[in-house]
Design goal:
The protein has 307 residues and is mainly alpha-helical. It is built from twelve helices and four strands, in the order ααββααααααααβααβ.
Length: 307
């Protein structure tokens, strides 16, 4: 038995030695390794554009502080490649929903990038309790006309939440005087920005000393705007077919209670999961609707989820 163990040990050493020698022989020289590394992957310092603007308001890039903060956000968001590709994919699906609502309210198109940095164009939930693409708090949602309860939460309704966000942004612009400050106030609140403007005796976002999150906020919007508008410049490669497409739907009016959404979905040839994907604002397995309010439920068009 001992002899067999010794023979196995020797055989194991021989195999390991052989693997080591082969690996050593196959390993590239320093010169070849460096050449391969350079050819396969490169990290570049990025050139900050000479001129940037948000909602028609110029960014003072001649200020060294502003230049460095812009450079940081371009670098961080360019080299977070997986997240960047997801933003391109989702933007193709959701920007066509958001853009006409912004235009209807006279809110600059650049604010669609605010939704990108708020939620990554998903129905995100923040630790503070904000919900949806626009990360609206419960009280704010109700203030701007959204129904928010355990049964229905319209912060998850993209069109309705975008309408509410537009109203908030217009109010901020009227109070603060610029779209850039309105964007910052979406993060820090109108009172918070007003208080800092008065305390620091300045009138522009770019002159404010703010905390980390709000201090980066507008620069993150600008970075996503720049990258999403110039994919090739920042090294993102994809085809049109790689991007996500919006699924066509039609609306079904409901003005009564729905006792079981599983059965309701089956009447339209879909399942519970698909119903909830297209109507994330329906937060329960049923709809109470004691007030007989009229809701519009999105149903995918025939055959969209079948072969």
């Amino acid at each position: 038995m001992k002899m067999i163990k010794n023979m196995l040990a020797l055989l194991g050493l021989a195999l390991v030695g052989g693997l080591f020698i082969n690996a050593f022989q196959d390993a590239p020289t320093d010169e070849n390794f460096e050449k391969k590394l350079v050819n396969d992957y490169n990290v570049y310092a990025l050139q900050v554009p000479d001129n940037l603007e948000f909602a028609g308001e110029p960014v003072p890039l001649n200020n060294p502080d502003i230049y460095e903060r812009m450079d940081r956000e371009l670098l961080v968001n360019t080299y977070w490649q997986s997240n960047g590709l997801l933003m391109f994919k989702r933007a193709q699906k959701y920007f066509p929903v958001i853009e006409p609502i912004l235009a209807k309210h006279g809110v600059p198109d650049d604010f669609k990038y605010l939704a990108v940095i708020e939620s990554g164009l998903t129905n995100a939930v923040s630790p503070a309790g904000a919900r949806g693409f626009w990360q609206i708090m419960k009280e704010t949602g109700r203030e701007y006309g959204l129904e928010v309860n355990d049964n229905v939460d319209e912060r998850y309704h993209l069109e309705m939440a975008t309408e509410a966000a537009c109203e908030y942004l217009k109010k901020s612009k009227a109070r603060l005087g610029s779209w850039t400050l309105a964007a910052a106030a979406y993060n820090a609140g109108n009172y918070g920005i007003t208080k800092e403007l008065e305390r620091q005796n300045v009138t522009a976002y770019y002159d404010l000393l703010l905390g980390e999150e709000t201090g980066r906020y507008v620069f993150r919007i600008l970075a996503l705007k720049e990258i999403l508008n110039h994919p090739n410049k920042y090294g993102f490669n994809f085809r049109d077919k790689d991007l996500y497409k919006n699924v066509p739907t039609y609306k079904v009016a409901v003005d009564t209670a729905v006792t079981d959404f599983t059965s309701f979905a089956e009447k339209f040839g879909i399942n519970y999961k698909i119903l909830k994907i297209h109507n994330p604002w329906l937060r329960d397995k049923h709809l109470n609707n004691k007030s007989r309010k009229q809701y519009f439920i999105d149903i995918p068009k025939d055959g969209i989820y079948t072969d």
